[in-house]
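Example with several molecule types.
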Amino acid sequence: MTIKESPRVSPVTGRPDRRAGSRPRRRSGRPGAGTLATFIAPGLMLFLMFVILPVLFAAYVAFFRWNGLGGVPTEFIGLENFRNLVQDDVFLGDLWRLALIVVLSLLVQLPLSFGLAMLLHQRFPGRTAFRLLFFVPYVLTEAVTAVLFRLVFSPRRGFADSLLANLGIDAQIGWLSDRDIIMFVIFGILTWKFFGFHMILFLAGRQNIPDELYEAAAIDGATGAQAFRSITLPLMGPTVRMIVFLSVIGSVQLFDLVYVLTGGGPFHASETLAITMYEQGFQRNQIGYASALSIAMFVISLVFALLYQRYVLNRDLQGSLTTAGGNRS
Amino acid sequence: MSVNTRRARLLRHTGFYVAAFLTTAFVATPILFALLGGFKDNQQLRENALGLPSPWNVENYTDVLESGAFWQQVFSSIFIALVTTFIVVICSAMVAFVFARYAFRGREGLFTLFAAGMMFPFAVAVLPLFIILRSFELLNSPFGVILPQAAFGLPLTIIILRTFFRSIPGEVEEAATIDGAGPWLFFTRILLPMARPVLATVSVLALVGSWNSFLLPLVVLQKSTWWTLPLGVTQFSGQYASDTAKVLAFVMLAMLPALVFYAFAERHLISGLTSGGTKG
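Resulting C-alpha coordinates for the full complex:
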Protein backbone atom coordinates (compact mmCIF):
# COMPACT_ATOMS: atom_id res chain seq x y z
CA MET A 1 0.00 0.00 0.00
CA THR A 2 1.00 3.54 -0.37
CA ILE A 3 1.30 6.25 2.17
CA LYS A 4 -1.80 8.24 1.60
CA GLU A 5 -5.26 8.70 3.06
CA SER A 6 -4.47 7.70 6.64
CA PRO A 7 -1.95 10.01 8.31
CA ARG A 8 1.20 7.99 8.59
CA VAL A 9 3.20 7.82 11.76
CA SER A 10 6.61 8.07 10.29
CA PRO A 11 9.51 6.31 11.89
CA VAL A 12 11.61 9.34 11.15
CA THR A 13 9.46 11.96 12.85
CA GLY A 14 11.55 14.65 14.37
CA ARG A 15 14.40 14.39 11.91
CA PRO A 16 15.50 17.81 10.75
CA ASP A 17 14.61 18.66 7.22
CA ARG A 18 17.81 18.43 5.23
CA ARG A 19 16.66 20.15 2.10
CA ALA A 20 15.75 23.59 3.32
CA GLY A 21 15.69 25.02 6.77
CA SER A 22 13.38 27.78 5.73
CA ARG A 23 10.09 26.05 6.31
CA PRO A 24 9.52 23.27 8.78
CA ARG A 25 7.50 20.46 7.31
CA ARG A 26 4.38 19.34 9.06
CA ARG A 27 5.07 15.70 8.66
CA SER A 28 8.34 14.23 7.63
CA GLY A 29 8.29 12.60 4.20
CA ARG A 30 5.22 14.59 3.21
CA PRO A 31 5.91 17.34 0.75
CA GLY A 32 4.07 20.63 1.05
CA ALA A 33 1.47 21.97 -1.31
CA GLY A 34 4.14 23.89 -3.21
CA THR A 35 6.09 20.78 -4.09
CA LEU A 36 2.96 18.91 -5.16
CA ALA A 37 1.92 21.83 -7.31
CA THR A 38 5.28 21.90 -9.08
CA PHE A 39 4.87 18.26 -9.96
CA ILE A 40 1.38 18.70 -11.32
CA ALA A 41 1.65 22.12 -12.93
CA PRO A 42 3.34 21.31 -16.27
CA GLY A 43 1.01 18.44 -17.10
CA LEU A 44 -2.07 20.26 -15.90
CA MET A 45 -1.28 23.41 -17.87
CA LEU A 46 -0.64 21.42 -21.03
CA PHE A 47 -3.87 19.52 -20.51
CA LEU A 48 -6.04 22.55 -19.76
CA MET A 49 -4.66 24.56 -22.63
CA PHE A 50 -4.68 21.96 -25.39
CA VAL A 51 -7.44 19.53 -24.39
CA ILE A 52 -10.00 21.17 -22.10
CA LEU A 53 -9.90 24.68 -23.55
CA PRO A 54 -10.40 23.53 -27.18
CA VAL A 55 -13.30 21.27 -26.26
CA LEU A 56 -15.00 24.03 -24.25
CA PHE A 57 -14.29 26.48 -27.04
CA ALA A 58 -15.90 24.14 -29.58
CA ALA A 59 -18.97 23.83 -27.35
CA TYR A 60 -19.18 27.64 -27.22
CA VAL A 61 -18.58 28.31 -30.92
CA ALA A 62 -21.23 25.75 -31.87
CA PHE A 63 -23.89 28.33 -30.95
CA PHE A 64 -22.56 30.96 -33.32
CA ARG A 65 -22.34 31.64 -37.00
CA TRP A 66 -18.66 32.32 -37.54
CA ASN A 67 -16.19 32.25 -40.38
CA GLY A 68 -13.19 32.08 -38.06
CA LEU A 69 -12.06 35.64 -38.53
CA GLY A 70 -11.90 38.41 -35.98
CA GLY A 71 -10.73 36.72 -32.80
CA VAL A 72 -14.02 35.60 -31.25
CA PRO A 73 -17.43 34.76 -32.69
CA THR A 74 -20.13 37.39 -32.23
CA GLU A 75 -23.21 36.28 -34.17
CA PHE A 76 -25.15 34.15 -31.70
CA ILE A 77 -27.69 31.92 -33.42
CA GLY A 78 -28.73 29.57 -30.65
CA LEU A 79 -29.38 26.04 -31.77
CA GLU A 80 -29.54 26.79 -35.46
CA ASN A 81 -26.30 24.93 -36.24
CA PHE A 82 -27.67 21.84 -34.57
CA ARG A 83 -31.03 22.20 -36.33
CA ASN A 84 -29.23 22.42 -39.65
CA LEU A 85 -27.09 19.48 -38.70
CA VAL A 86 -29.97 17.06 -38.21
CA GLN A 87 -31.35 18.08 -41.60
CA ASP A 88 -28.00 17.79 -43.37
CA ASP A 89 -28.02 14.80 -45.71
CA VAL A 90 -24.25 14.50 -45.53
CA PHE A 91 -24.29 14.34 -41.74
CA LEU A 92 -27.14 11.81 -41.74
CA GLY A 93 -25.22 9.86 -44.38
CA ASP A 94 -22.14 9.94 -42.12
CA LEU A 95 -24.17 8.36 -39.34
CA TRP A 96 -25.54 5.75 -41.69
CA ARG A 97 -22.04 4.90 -42.95
CA LEU A 98 -20.77 4.78 -39.39
CA ALA A 99 -23.48 2.25 -38.58
CA LEU A 100 -22.54 0.24 -41.66
CA ILE A 101 -18.84 0.13 -40.72
CA VAL A 102 -19.68 -0.86 -37.14
CA VAL A 103 -22.05 -3.63 -38.23
CA LEU A 104 -19.61 -4.99 -40.79
CA SER A 105 -16.80 -4.92 -38.22
CA LEU A 106 -18.85 -6.82 -35.70
CA LEU A 107 -20.15 -9.38 -38.18
CA VAL A 108 -17.08 -9.92 -40.35
CA GLN A 109 -13.87 -8.46 -39.02
CA LEU A 110 -14.09 -9.47 -35.38
CA PRO A 111 -15.15 -13.08 -36.06
CA LEU A 112 -12.31 -13.30 -38.57
CA SER A 113 -9.73 -12.06 -36.07
CA PHE A 114 -11.23 -14.28 -33.41
CA GLY A 115 -10.95 -17.32 -35.64
CA LEU A 116 -7.37 -16.52 -36.53
CA ALA A 117 -6.50 -16.01 -32.88
CA MET A 118 -7.94 -19.43 -32.02
CA LEU A 119 -5.95 -20.86 -34.90
CA LEU A 120 -2.69 -19.24 -33.90
CA HIS A 121 -3.22 -20.28 -30.31
CA GLN A 122 -2.69 -23.86 -31.43
CA ARG A 123 0.82 -25.15 -31.37
CA PHE A 124 2.22 -25.65 -34.83
CA PRO A 125 5.58 -24.83 -36.37
CA GLY A 126 5.82 -21.29 -37.67
CA ARG A 127 2.96 -19.83 -35.69
CA THR A 128 5.12 -17.09 -34.15
CA ALA A 129 6.14 -15.94 -37.60
CA PHE A 130 2.49 -15.77 -38.64
CA ARG A 131 1.57 -13.81 -35.53
CA LEU A 132 4.30 -11.27 -36.20
CA LEU A 133 3.38 -10.99 -39.84
CA PHE A 134 -0.35 -10.46 -39.24
CA PHE A 135 0.41 -7.54 -36.93
CA VAL A 136 2.44 -5.69 -39.58
CA PRO A 137 -0.42 -3.70 -41.17
CA TYR A 138 -1.35 -2.27 -37.79
CA VAL A 139 2.16 -0.84 -37.43
CA LEU A 140 1.92 1.14 -40.67
CA THR A 141 0.73 4.74 -40.76
CA GLU A 142 -2.91 5.08 -41.82
CA ALA A 143 -2.25 7.91 -44.25
CA VAL A 144 0.60 6.01 -45.92
CA THR A 145 -1.55 2.88 -46.09
CA ALA A 146 -4.23 4.93 -47.81
CA VAL A 147 -1.80 6.14 -50.48
CA LEU A 148 -0.71 2.55 -51.06
CA PHE A 149 -4.29 1.34 -51.50
CA ARG A 150 -5.13 4.24 -53.75
CA LEU A 151 -2.51 2.80 -56.09
CA VAL A 152 -3.64 -0.79 -55.56
CA PHE A 153 -7.15 0.23 -56.60
CA SER A 154 -6.14 2.70 -59.26
CA PRO A 155 -8.55 2.84 -62.18
CA ARG A 156 -8.02 1.45 -65.69
CA ARG A 157 -6.28 -1.83 -65.07
CA GLY A 158 -4.61 -1.04 -61.83
CA PHE A 159 -3.07 -3.69 -59.64
CA ALA A 160 -6.35 -5.01 -58.23
CA ASP A 161 -7.84 -5.36 -61.70
CA SER A 162 -4.73 -7.19 -62.94
CA LEU A 163 -4.90 -9.50 -59.96
CA LEU A 164 -8.51 -10.37 -60.76
CA ALA A 165 -7.72 -10.78 -64.46
CA ASN A 166 -5.06 -13.26 -63.47
CA LEU A 167 -7.69 -15.23 -61.57
CA GLY A 168 -9.83 -15.25 -64.69
CA ILE A 169 -12.14 -12.41 -63.73
CA ASP A 170 -11.85 -9.82 -66.41
CA ALA A 171 -13.64 -6.80 -65.09
CA GLN A 172 -12.60 -3.25 -64.67
CA ILE A 173 -14.16 -2.26 -61.42
CA GLY A 174 -14.40 1.34 -60.30
CA TRP A 175 -13.06 0.41 -56.89
CA LEU A 176 -12.82 3.95 -55.62
CA SER A 177 -15.25 5.67 -57.95
CA ASP A 178 -18.35 3.49 -57.69
CA ARG A 179 -20.51 4.78 -54.89
CA ASP A 180 -22.22 1.45 -54.44
CA ILE A 181 -19.06 -0.42 -53.52
CA ILE A 182 -16.78 2.25 -52.05
CA MET A 183 -17.79 1.55 -48.45
CA PHE A 184 -17.03 -2.14 -48.91
CA VAL A 185 -13.63 -1.35 -50.38
CA ILE A 186 -12.94 0.87 -47.38
CA PHE A 187 -14.15 -1.82 -45.05
CA GLY A 188 -11.80 -4.29 -46.75
CA ILE A 189 -8.86 -1.94 -46.20
CA LEU A 190 -9.87 -1.35 -42.58
CA THR A 191 -9.96 -5.10 -42.10
CA TRP A 192 -6.50 -5.41 -43.64
CA LYS A 193 -5.21 -2.73 -41.31
CA PHE A 194 -6.82 -3.73 -38.02
CA PHE A 195 -7.54 -7.47 -37.95
CA GLY A 196 -4.01 -8.21 -36.71
CA PHE A 197 -4.42 -5.87 -33.76
CA HIS A 198 -7.70 -7.47 -32.76
CA MET A 199 -6.19 -10.89 -33.30
CA ILE A 200 -3.36 -10.12 -30.86
CA LEU A 201 -5.85 -8.89 -28.26
CA PHE A 202 -7.96 -12.04 -28.70
CA LEU A 203 -4.81 -14.16 -28.41
CA ALA A 204 -3.87 -12.45 -25.17
CA GLY A 205 -7.37 -13.09 -23.86
CA ARG A 206 -7.20 -16.73 -24.88
CA GLN A 207 -3.82 -17.18 -23.24
CA ASN A 208 -5.24 -15.96 -19.96
CA ILE A 209 -7.60 -18.93 -19.78
CA PRO A 210 -5.92 -21.55 -17.62
CA ASP A 211 -5.22 -24.90 -19.27
CA GLU A 212 -6.53 -26.70 -16.20
CA LEU A 213 -10.09 -25.85 -17.21
CA TYR A 214 -9.66 -27.70 -20.48
CA GLU A 215 -7.97 -30.62 -18.76
CA ALA A 216 -10.85 -30.87 -16.31
CA ALA A 217 -13.34 -30.70 -19.16
CA ALA A 218 -11.49 -33.43 -21.03
CA ILE A 219 -11.57 -35.64 -17.93
CA ASP A 220 -15.31 -35.05 -17.74
CA GLY A 221 -15.53 -36.28 -21.29
CA ALA A 222 -16.24 -32.98 -23.00
CA THR A 223 -15.50 -32.81 -26.70
CA GLY A 224 -13.42 -30.00 -28.17
CA ALA A 225 -16.54 -28.25 -29.41
CA GLN A 226 -18.20 -28.47 -26.01
CA ALA A 227 -15.12 -27.11 -24.28
CA PHE A 228 -15.02 -24.27 -26.77
CA ARG A 229 -18.65 -23.40 -26.12
CA SER A 230 -18.62 -23.67 -22.35
CA ILE A 231 -15.09 -22.51 -21.54
CA THR A 232 -13.52 -20.50 -24.33
CA LEU A 233 -16.49 -18.41 -25.40
CA PRO A 234 -17.66 -17.31 -21.94
CA LEU A 235 -14.14 -16.63 -20.67
CA MET A 236 -13.32 -14.62 -23.77
CA GLY A 237 -16.32 -12.40 -22.98
CA PRO A 238 -14.39 -9.52 -21.41
CA THR A 239 -11.90 -9.44 -24.31
CA VAL A 240 -14.69 -9.49 -26.87
CA ARG A 241 -16.58 -6.68 -25.15
CA MET A 242 -13.44 -4.58 -24.89
CA ILE A 243 -12.57 -5.05 -28.57
CA VAL A 244 -16.13 -4.18 -29.61
CA PHE A 245 -15.79 -0.99 -27.59
CA LEU A 246 -12.46 -0.02 -29.15
CA SER A 247 -13.76 -0.85 -32.59
CA VAL A 248 -16.84 1.37 -32.27
CA ILE A 249 -14.97 4.32 -30.74
CA GLY A 250 -12.34 3.99 -33.48
CA SER A 251 -15.01 4.00 -36.19
CA VAL A 252 -16.54 7.24 -34.87
CA GLN A 253 -13.20 9.00 -35.29
CA LEU A 254 -12.29 7.52 -38.66
CA PHE A 255 -10.48 10.14 -40.73
CA ASP A 256 -6.91 9.60 -41.98
CA LEU A 257 -7.46 6.51 -44.06
CA VAL A 258 -10.65 7.58 -45.79
CA TYR A 259 -9.62 11.18 -46.26
CA VAL A 260 -6.41 10.24 -48.05
CA LEU A 261 -8.02 7.38 -49.97
CA THR A 262 -11.10 9.13 -51.36
CA GLY A 263 -11.43 12.52 -49.69
CA GLY A 264 -14.92 11.34 -48.75
CA GLY A 265 -16.00 10.92 -52.35
CA PRO A 266 -17.37 10.10 -54.81
CA PHE A 267 -20.06 12.68 -53.97
CA HIS A 268 -19.85 12.13 -50.19
CA ALA A 269 -20.37 8.38 -50.66
CA SER A 270 -17.54 7.52 -48.27
CA GLU A 271 -17.56 10.61 -46.09
CA THR A 272 -17.14 10.21 -42.33
CA LEU A 273 -18.13 12.53 -39.47
CA ALA A 274 -14.56 13.77 -39.11
CA ILE A 275 -14.22 14.41 -42.85
CA THR A 276 -17.45 16.43 -42.93
CA MET A 277 -16.19 18.40 -39.94
CA TYR A 278 -12.86 19.01 -41.68
CA GLU A 279 -14.51 20.08 -44.93
CA GLN A 280 -16.93 22.45 -43.23
CA GLY A 281 -14.37 23.90 -40.87
CA PHE A 282 -11.21 24.12 -42.92
CA GLN A 283 -12.40 24.26 -46.52
CA ARG A 284 -15.58 26.30 -46.19
CA ASN A 285 -14.77 28.25 -43.01
CA GLN A 286 -18.11 27.37 -41.43
CA ILE A 287 -16.46 27.26 -38.02
CA GLY A 288 -19.69 27.40 -36.04
CA TYR A 289 -21.32 24.62 -38.03
CA ALA A 290 -18.20 22.46 -37.92
CA SER A 291 -17.99 22.98 -34.15
CA ALA A 292 -21.57 21.79 -33.80
CA LEU A 293 -20.53 18.70 -35.73
CA SER A 294 -17.53 18.22 -33.42
CA ILE A 295 -19.82 18.39 -30.45
CA ALA A 296 -22.14 15.86 -32.08
CA MET A 297 -19.18 13.51 -32.50
CA PHE A 298 -18.24 14.03 -28.89
CA VAL A 299 -21.77 13.35 -27.70
CA ILE A 300 -22.00 10.20 -29.84
CA SER A 301 -18.77 8.80 -28.37
CA LEU A 302 -19.71 9.84 -24.86
CA VAL A 303 -23.23 8.43 -24.94
CA PHE A 304 -22.00 5.21 -26.46
CA ALA A 305 -19.19 4.92 -23.91
CA LEU A 306 -21.47 5.59 -20.95
CA LEU A 307 -24.21 3.23 -22.11
CA TYR A 308 -21.68 0.57 -22.98
CA GLN A 309 -19.98 0.83 -19.61
CA ARG A 310 -23.29 0.88 -17.81
CA TYR A 311 -24.92 -2.06 -19.57
CA VAL A 312 -22.13 -4.16 -21.02
CA LEU A 313 -18.79 -3.58 -19.33
CA ASN A 314 -20.10 -3.38 -15.79
CA ARG A 315 -20.40 -7.14 -15.73
CA ASP A 316 -16.65 -7.32 -16.23
CA LEU A 317 -16.04 -4.70 -13.60
CA GLN A 318 -17.99 -6.83 -11.15
CA GLY A 319 -15.63 -9.62 -11.99
CA SER A 320 -18.45 -11.85 -13.09
CA LEU A 321 -16.46 -13.52 -15.83
CA THR A 322 -18.29 -16.76 -15.75
CA THR A 323 -21.83 -15.47 -15.84
CA ALA A 324 -21.20 -13.71 -19.10
CA GLY A 325 -21.69 -16.69 -21.35
CA GLY A 326 -24.19 -17.24 -24.09
CA ASN A 327 -26.99 -18.39 -21.80
CA ARG A 328 -28.16 -15.26 -20.09
CA SER A 329 -31.85 -15.49 -19.45
CA MET B 1 -4.43 -45.67 -33.18
CA SER B 2 -1.16 -43.78 -33.30
CA VAL B 3 -1.25 -43.72 -37.07
CA ASN B 4 -4.76 -42.41 -36.84
CA THR B 5 -3.90 -39.53 -34.50
CA ARG B 6 -0.84 -38.72 -36.61
CA ARG B 7 -3.00 -38.49 -39.64
CA ALA B 8 -5.56 -36.38 -37.79
CA ARG B 9 -2.83 -34.03 -36.66
CA LEU B 10 -1.39 -33.81 -40.14
CA LEU B 11 -4.82 -33.00 -41.48
CA ARG B 12 -5.34 -30.36 -38.83
CA HIS B 13 -1.93 -28.87 -39.50
CA THR B 14 -2.74 -28.72 -43.17
CA GLY B 15 -5.86 -26.78 -42.31
CA PHE B 16 -3.84 -24.39 -40.16
CA TYR B 17 -1.33 -23.79 -42.89
CA VAL B 18 -3.93 -23.23 -45.58
CA ALA B 19 -5.67 -20.60 -43.44
CA ALA B 20 -2.39 -19.06 -42.32
CA PHE B 21 -1.00 -18.83 -45.84
CA LEU B 22 -4.22 -17.35 -47.22
CA THR B 23 -4.05 -14.67 -44.53
CA THR B 24 -0.37 -14.15 -45.27
CA ALA B 25 -1.19 -13.57 -48.92
CA PHE B 26 -3.90 -11.09 -47.90
CA VAL B 27 -1.48 -9.19 -45.67
CA ALA B 28 1.62 -9.35 -47.83
CA THR B 29 0.23 -8.67 -51.32
CA PRO B 30 -0.19 -4.88 -51.00
CA ILE B 31 3.19 -4.52 -49.30
CA LEU B 32 4.93 -6.62 -51.94
CA PHE B 33 3.14 -4.59 -54.59
CA ALA B 34 4.76 -1.45 -53.15
CA LEU B 35 8.17 -3.05 -52.64
CA LEU B 36 8.39 -4.62 -56.10
CA GLY B 37 6.47 -1.85 -57.84
CA GLY B 38 9.14 0.57 -56.72
CA PHE B 39 11.68 -1.46 -58.70
CA LYS B 40 9.61 -1.35 -61.87
CA ASP B 41 9.07 1.45 -64.31
CA ASN B 42 5.58 2.58 -65.21
CA GLN B 43 5.45 0.55 -68.38
CA GLN B 44 6.29 -2.61 -66.45
CA LEU B 45 3.66 -1.69 -63.88
CA ARG B 46 1.05 -1.57 -66.61
CA GLU B 47 2.10 -4.63 -68.56
CA ASN B 48 3.53 -6.81 -65.84
CA ALA B 49 1.64 -5.82 -62.73
CA LEU B 50 2.03 -9.10 -60.89
CA GLY B 51 5.44 -10.46 -61.86
CA LEU B 52 8.90 -9.66 -60.64
CA PRO B 53 10.51 -6.54 -62.06
CA SER B 54 12.61 -7.16 -65.15
CA PRO B 55 14.92 -5.46 -65.33
CA TRP B 56 15.18 -4.35 -61.71
CA ASN B 57 15.16 -0.63 -61.68
CA VAL B 58 16.59 1.18 -58.66
CA GLU B 59 16.06 4.64 -60.02
CA ASN B 60 12.76 5.28 -58.21
CA TYR B 61 14.29 4.46 -54.85
CA THR B 62 17.50 6.40 -55.44
CA ASP B 63 15.52 9.40 -56.70
CA VAL B 64 13.54 9.52 -53.49
CA LEU B 65 16.60 8.92 -51.33
CA GLU B 66 18.49 11.70 -53.08
CA SER B 67 15.68 14.20 -52.64
CA GLY B 68 16.09 16.65 -49.81
CA ALA B 69 12.34 16.64 -49.13
CA PHE B 70 12.31 12.99 -48.10
CA TRP B 71 15.08 13.42 -45.53
CA GLN B 72 13.61 16.64 -44.26
CA GLN B 73 10.32 14.80 -43.65
CA VAL B 74 12.07 11.91 -41.94
CA PHE B 75 13.85 14.41 -39.72
CA SER B 76 10.62 16.31 -38.90
CA SER B 77 8.78 13.10 -38.09
CA ILE B 78 11.58 11.91 -35.81
CA PHE B 79 12.05 15.29 -34.15
CA ILE B 80 8.33 15.77 -33.50
CA ALA B 81 7.94 12.19 -32.25
CA LEU B 82 10.91 12.40 -29.88
CA VAL B 83 10.02 15.78 -28.39
CA THR B 84 6.36 14.77 -28.03
CA THR B 85 7.38 11.58 -26.26
CA PHE B 86 9.81 13.39 -23.98
CA ILE B 87 7.23 15.98 -22.95
CA VAL B 88 4.34 13.59 -22.46
CA VAL B 89 6.36 11.05 -20.48
CA ILE B 90 8.00 13.64 -18.18
CA CYS B 91 4.78 15.54 -17.50
CA SER B 92 2.73 12.39 -17.01
CA ALA B 93 5.29 10.79 -14.73
CA MET B 94 5.31 13.82 -12.45
CA VAL B 95 1.52 14.00 -12.30
CA ALA B 96 1.13 10.25 -11.90
CA PHE B 97 3.72 10.25 -9.10
CA VAL B 98 1.75 12.75 -7.07
CA PHE B 99 -1.57 11.03 -7.80
CA ALA B 100 -0.17 7.66 -6.81
CA ARG B 101 1.69 8.54 -3.65
CA TYR B 102 0.27 11.62 -1.94
CA ALA B 103 -3.12 12.47 -0.58
CA PHE B 104 -4.37 16.00 -1.00
CA ARG B 105 -7.68 17.74 -1.37
CA GLY B 106 -9.03 17.60 -4.92
CA ARG B 107 -6.87 14.69 -5.97
CA GLU B 108 -9.71 12.47 -7.12
CA GLY B 109 -11.35 15.34 -8.95
CA LEU B 110 -8.14 16.18 -10.77
CA PHE B 111 -7.55 12.58 -11.67
CA THR B 112 -11.08 12.27 -13.02
CA LEU B 113 -10.48 15.38 -15.10
CA PHE B 114 -7.38 13.85 -16.66
CA ALA B 115 -9.05 10.47 -17.13
CA ALA B 116 -12.03 12.14 -18.80
CA GLY B 117 -9.57 13.36 -21.41
CA MET B 118 -9.62 9.82 -22.76
CA MET B 119 -13.19 10.50 -23.81
CA PHE B 120 -12.34 13.42 -26.08
CA PRO B 121 -11.84 12.19 -29.62
CA PHE B 122 -9.01 14.20 -31.11
CA ALA B 123 -11.12 15.22 -34.08
CA VAL B 124 -13.47 17.06 -31.73
CA ALA B 125 -10.72 19.40 -30.65
CA VAL B 126 -8.82 19.94 -33.88
CA LEU B 127 -10.81 22.91 -35.12
CA PRO B 128 -10.68 24.97 -31.91
CA LEU B 129 -7.06 23.84 -31.51
CA PHE B 130 -6.32 25.36 -34.87
CA ILE B 131 -7.80 28.68 -33.77
CA ILE B 132 -5.94 28.60 -30.46
CA LEU B 133 -2.65 27.70 -32.13
CA ARG B 134 -3.21 30.46 -34.65
CA SER B 135 -3.57 33.03 -31.89
CA PHE B 136 -0.40 31.69 -30.20
CA GLU B 137 1.35 31.95 -33.57
CA LEU B 138 2.21 28.28 -33.39
CA LEU B 139 0.98 27.45 -36.90
CA ASN B 140 3.75 26.08 -39.11
CA SER B 141 5.81 25.45 -36.01
CA PRO B 142 6.69 21.92 -34.92
CA PHE B 143 5.52 22.88 -31.44
CA GLY B 144 2.05 23.49 -32.80
CA VAL B 145 1.99 19.73 -33.40
CA ILE B 146 4.05 18.65 -30.41
CA LEU B 147 2.18 20.40 -27.59
CA PRO B 148 -1.37 19.26 -28.49
CA GLN B 149 -0.14 15.74 -29.21
CA ALA B 150 1.58 15.61 -25.85
CA ALA B 151 -1.53 17.00 -24.15
CA PHE B 152 -3.77 14.37 -25.72
CA GLY B 153 -1.27 11.68 -24.75
CA LEU B 154 -1.41 12.64 -21.07
CA PRO B 155 -4.55 10.75 -19.93
CA LEU B 156 -3.52 7.27 -21.02
CA THR B 157 0.10 7.77 -19.95
CA ILE B 158 -0.92 9.06 -16.53
CA ILE B 159 -3.31 6.15 -15.98
CA ILE B 160 -0.69 3.55 -16.88
CA LEU B 161 2.08 5.19 -14.84
CA ARG B 162 -0.12 5.82 -11.81
CA THR B 163 -1.02 2.15 -11.68
CA PHE B 164 2.65 1.27 -11.73
CA PHE B 165 3.75 3.88 -9.18
CA ARG B 166 1.06 2.67 -6.79
CA SER B 167 2.46 -0.83 -6.92
CA ILE B 168 5.82 0.23 -5.49
CA PRO B 169 5.80 -0.54 -1.77
CA GLY B 170 5.80 2.29 0.74
CA GLU B 171 8.90 0.85 2.40
CA VAL B 172 10.98 1.89 -0.59
CA GLU B 173 9.95 5.46 -0.04
CA GLU B 174 10.47 5.24 3.71
CA ALA B 175 13.98 3.96 3.16
CA ALA B 176 14.65 6.82 0.79
CA THR B 177 13.27 9.32 3.26
CA ILE B 178 15.46 7.93 6.02
CA ASP B 179 18.42 8.40 3.73
CA GLY B 180 17.38 12.02 3.42
CA ALA B 181 15.78 12.00 0.00
CA GLY B 182 12.96 14.46 -0.55
CA PRO B 183 10.22 13.84 -3.11
CA TRP B 184 12.33 15.10 -6.01
CA LEU B 185 15.28 12.86 -5.23
CA PHE B 186 13.01 9.92 -4.56
CA PHE B 187 11.19 10.54 -7.84
CA THR B 188 14.22 11.04 -10.06
CA ARG B 189 16.72 8.68 -8.46
CA ILE B 190 14.54 5.78 -7.35
CA LEU B 191 11.06 5.77 -8.81
CA LEU B 192 11.91 6.58 -12.43
CA PRO B 193 14.74 4.02 -12.67
CA MET B 194 12.43 1.40 -11.16
CA ALA B 195 9.78 2.28 -13.71
CA ARG B 196 12.02 1.72 -16.72
CA PRO B 197 9.96 -1.07 -18.33
CA VAL B 198 6.66 0.77 -18.01
CA LEU B 199 8.33 3.99 -19.18
CA ALA B 200 9.46 2.07 -22.25
CA THR B 201 5.88 0.99 -22.86
CA VAL B 202 4.37 4.45 -22.62
CA SER B 203 7.23 5.89 -24.70
CA VAL B 204 6.53 3.41 -27.46
CA LEU B 205 2.87 4.41 -27.38
CA ALA B 206 3.71 8.10 -27.64
CA LEU B 207 6.32 7.57 -30.36
CA VAL B 208 4.03 5.49 -32.52
CA GLY B 209 1.11 7.83 -31.98
CA SER B 210 3.14 10.82 -33.05
CA TRP B 211 4.77 9.04 -35.96
CA ASN B 212 1.36 8.07 -37.37
CA SER B 213 -0.43 11.29 -36.62
CA PHE B 214 -1.95 12.96 -39.65
CA LEU B 215 -4.90 15.25 -38.95
CA LEU B 216 -3.06 17.63 -36.63
CA PRO B 217 0.05 18.08 -38.84
CA LEU B 218 -2.28 18.46 -41.83
CA VAL B 219 -4.00 21.37 -40.15
CA VAL B 220 -1.02 22.98 -38.43
CA LEU B 221 1.81 22.56 -40.92
CA GLN B 222 0.64 24.41 -43.98
CA LYS B 223 4.13 25.23 -45.21
CA SER B 224 6.29 22.31 -46.26
CA THR B 225 9.23 23.30 -44.02
CA TRP B 226 8.19 20.98 -41.19
CA TRP B 227 6.09 18.44 -43.06
CA THR B 228 6.13 15.00 -41.52
CA LEU B 229 6.31 11.79 -43.55
CA PRO B 230 2.56 11.11 -43.72
CA LEU B 231 1.99 14.62 -45.08
CA GLY B 232 4.94 14.21 -47.44
CA VAL B 233 3.66 10.92 -48.82
CA THR B 234 0.16 12.22 -49.52
CA GLN B 235 1.54 15.38 -51.08
CA PHE B 236 4.06 13.44 -53.17
CA SER B 237 1.39 11.05 -54.42
CA GLY B 238 -0.62 14.02 -55.63
CA GLN B 239 2.33 15.72 -57.25
CA TYR B 240 3.52 12.58 -59.07
CA ALA B 241 0.07 11.16 -59.70
CA SER B 242 1.10 9.87 -63.10
CA ASP B 243 4.36 8.32 -61.90
CA THR B 244 2.94 5.39 -59.96
CA ALA B 245 6.27 3.57 -59.67
CA LYS B 246 7.95 6.50 -58.00
CA VAL B 247 5.07 6.97 -55.57
CA LEU B 248 5.28 3.28 -54.68
CA ALA B 249 8.99 3.70 -53.95
CA PHE B 250 8.21 6.68 -51.73
CA VAL B 251 5.44 4.75 -49.95
CA MET B 252 7.79 1.82 -49.35
CA LEU B 253 10.53 4.05 -47.97
CA ALA B 254 8.01 5.84 -45.76
CA MET B 255 6.84 2.50 -44.33
CA LEU B 256 10.38 1.26 -43.79
CA PRO B 257 11.20 3.06 -40.50
CA ALA B 258 8.07 1.63 -38.85
CA LEU B 259 8.85 -1.85 -40.20
CA VAL B 260 12.46 -1.68 -38.96
CA PHE B 261 11.30 -0.41 -35.59
CA TYR B 262 8.79 -3.25 -35.41
CA ALA B 263 11.43 -5.80 -36.37
CA PHE B 264 13.74 -4.69 -33.56
CA ALA B 265 11.28 -3.72 -30.84
CA GLU B 266 8.50 -6.14 -31.70
CA ARG B 267 7.96 -7.23 -28.09
CA HIS B 268 7.79 -3.71 -26.68
CA LEU B 269 5.70 -2.49 -29.56
CA ILE B 270 3.08 -5.23 -29.31
CA SER B 271 2.83 -5.07 -25.53
CA GLY B 272 2.72 -1.28 -25.65
CA LEU B 273 0.09 -1.08 -28.35
CA THR B 274 -2.08 -3.78 -26.87
CA SER B 275 -1.84 -2.39 -23.34
CA GLY B 276 -2.76 0.99 -24.78
CA GLY B 277 -5.67 -0.73 -26.43
CA THR B 278 -6.86 -2.60 -23.40
CA LYS B 279 -6.61 0.41 -21.13
CA GLY B 280 -8.19 2.69 -23.69
